Structure formats: C-alpha cells, structure tokens
Prior knowledge:
Elements: E1 9-11, H1 20-26, H2 36-53, E2 58-63, H3 66-77, E3 83-87, H4 91-102, E4 106-110, H5 120-129, E5 135-141, E6 143-144, E7 149-150, H6 153-162, E8 168-172, E9 191-195, E10 206-211, H7 213-218, H8 231-234, H9 239-242, H10 249-265, H11 267-288, E11 294-296, E12 308-313, H12 319-328, E13 332-336, E14 345-349, H13 356-372, H14 381-395
Parallel strand pairs: 1-13, 3-4, 3-5, 5-8, 8-9
Antiparallel strand pairs: 2-10, 6-7, 9-10, 11-12, 12-14, 13-14
Bound molecules: pyridoxal-5'-phosphate (PLP).
Amino acid sequence: MATKRGRKFLNTPGPTHVPDRVMNAMHQPTLDLSDPEFLDVSMSCFLDMKKVFNTEGEIFLYSSNGHGAWEAALTNVFSPGDKILVPETGNFSNAWANMAKALMLEVETLPGNWRRAIDIEALEEHLKKDTKKEIKGILIIHTETATGITNDLPAIRSAIDSADHPGLLIVDTVAAAGTVDYRMDEWGIDVTVGASQKGLMMPPGIGIVAAGEKALSATKETTMPRLYWDWKTRLEAEHYRKFCGTAPQLMVFGMREALNMLFEEGLENVFERHRVLAAATHAAVEVWGQAGTLSLNAVEPKERSNGVTTILTSDGIDAGQFRDICRDEMMVGLGGGLGDLNGKAFRIGHMGDINAPMLYAALSAVESTLGYLNIKYASGGVTAAIEYITNVKKNETGPFSF
Ligand SMILES: Cc1ncc(COP(=O)(O)O)c(C=O)c1O
C-alpha cells in the first residue's frame, strides 16, 4: 500500500476520534492501587457520570465494552427464566435479545421497522396484554446505531405508565450518550447502559451502568449467577471492589479529562453541536440522493440520530467496497451496514470530539469516493452541508463549538 501522510479520519459511529487532551491525560505512569491521587480522580468520575445521565442512582464502571455493560445490566436485575420484552430497533436490539436468551431469559420481541423508531402504540398494546405482569423488564436501544434512529424515551415511559406496567425500563444509551439529552431519573429509567468509545470521547474499554432505586432493590432478589458484574460488591467502600479488582487506571484518567471537556463545553452545547452536524450530514445525503442511488435510512426526520447517519445504497452498489475505498484511498473510516443492512448501507458517524471541518472532510471523502467508483450521485452534497452550518452560525447567537 502506498505511504499515506497526514491524519486518518475516523467517522465510524464508535469507536470515535479520541481528543488529544484525553490521550495526553492517559499518558502517565501507573500508580499504587491505593494512591490517593488516583482514588480522588476515580471517585470523581463515579460522581460526575451521574451528571451525564442525570441520575442520583449508582454508577458502575467495568473494564469492558458495551457488551459487558449489557451483561452487567441483565445479570443484576433478572433471574434465569424471567420474561423480558425487547422491541426490535435493528441489529443492536437483536444482539441484546440474543445475549438475554444465552443468559436463560425468556425473550419476547415486538417486531419493528428498521426505518422507523419504536411504535409507541404497539408497545403500549403489548404491555396491556400482559395482564399477569409477567414481563419483568423492557430493553430499549436509545439510538440504534445500525439504523441511525433515536427512540423517544419519554414517550416510551408514558406508554409503560399508560399500560400500568411494573416492568423495569432498561435503556442502552451506548450510541446516544453525549449526543442528545438524557434524563434517567426524570424519564423513569431504571437502568442505563453506556460505553466509553462513542459520544463520550474515550477509547473503547470502559462499560458504564447506572442503576436507580427500583433496580437496586430488584438486584437483592435476583439469582442470576454473577461475580465480576455483581453490583453488591462494587458498592462496598474499598475502592479495589469498585472495579472488582485492579482498576483500568489510565482509562480512568482519560475518563476524567473527557468529562472535563463535556462539562467545559456544557452538555446543552454538546447536544446542539451534534444536532447541527447531523442536520448538515442529512442535507448532504439528500442532495447526493437526487440521482436515485443513495437515501437516508431514517425516513422520519425527527427520528434521525444526532450521532450517526445510515445511508442506504441501491442494488448494484457494493457498500463494502465503498467503505474500503473511503478508508484506504480517501483516509476516512466509515461504518458498514449491519445485520439486515449488511452490504446494503454505509454509516457516517458524527459523534464525539468532532467539529464542522472534520465533518466536511468526511463528507468530501464520501463524495470523492462516489465519483471514484463511478456511482451516480448529484453533486453539491458537501456544499449543502457547508451552507447549512454557515446559516446556523449566521442566524443564531454564538459561541459556537462547531
Ligand atoms: C447501541 C449499541 N449498543 C451496544 C453496542 C455494543 O458495544 P461494544 O461493541 O462496545 O460491545 C454498540 C456497539 O456499537 C451499540 O452501538
């Protein structure tokens, strides 16, 4: 392969580009496990993650990825044989449901349309039919990374309440955290699952779980075998127990810096930056798509994710090859189509430590790859994105972080 100069751009919907500040914060010597310098930083992360999720509940940090955090949530609040409901959103709801089956849970699915958010009425109807209240928990993917669709959590809460259903509401905000508002306590969410490597601007390696009162009480009765994931020992005072052993020290230093960056910018501004970058991406795809070969997967604009855009490719386009060329020739890493969309879509991540010029680079590489592969597209997508952002800057008052 020819030598390439300059930086490779990472526009997958996780992992995302890690800011230099976070990398530098991690570049330090490891410490004695009981060094107060580390303990203070670590405990401040447990406290400050509560602000990210807007909860007074307990935070659990795992040396894991999102799958680990999924398993932590399931093993702590359910017992083998418990029935749960998983509304289908796409690849990740299916994968979480499969994990639940492997853990001997009885899984009911609510079939879904991969181009739309969860059907709230259908969810309410399903829960109303559970007159014996056998469903112990409802697993929701906040942003389904495969489809680029964000679900309406307050509406989901209302549907559960209207059905007068006691099931635990368990939300995967792995791909949504740090891109869109999230209010765990206000929205009646019992367990939140997150991971470090997307909107939270850290490298992969920390799984994050938050548990509210109802979940902390449920965990006392559950019989699922668990040790590493167990909340009980992690709530003990000794710091060593909080990670069930040696803490991923350097990752924790990175987490501290990422949290500092989020709070410095202000969470509201972080969400607004993501909203604007997402809308600019949609504007670009809508222009390219006028030639009939590309389209936004999320058909309803208000359901589109702030952090990831899934673009469907028409028959005859090799979406896998498209992604390879974009990465290897144009230096921009994109996400591929997942599950049912394998080979039929690619995904642009616009989450985390990203600003307008970084987005322009990614969109330009996509437009360039379309031309390089002789795929029919209407030119002007990048210009549409630039114009969208320029108009936002002109018409709103700053300060702008994008
Ligand atoms: C919504 C969602 N949940 C869970 C996961 C699984 O996370 P991980 O790959 O870190 O195990 C992902 C990964 O992309 C995701 O997007």
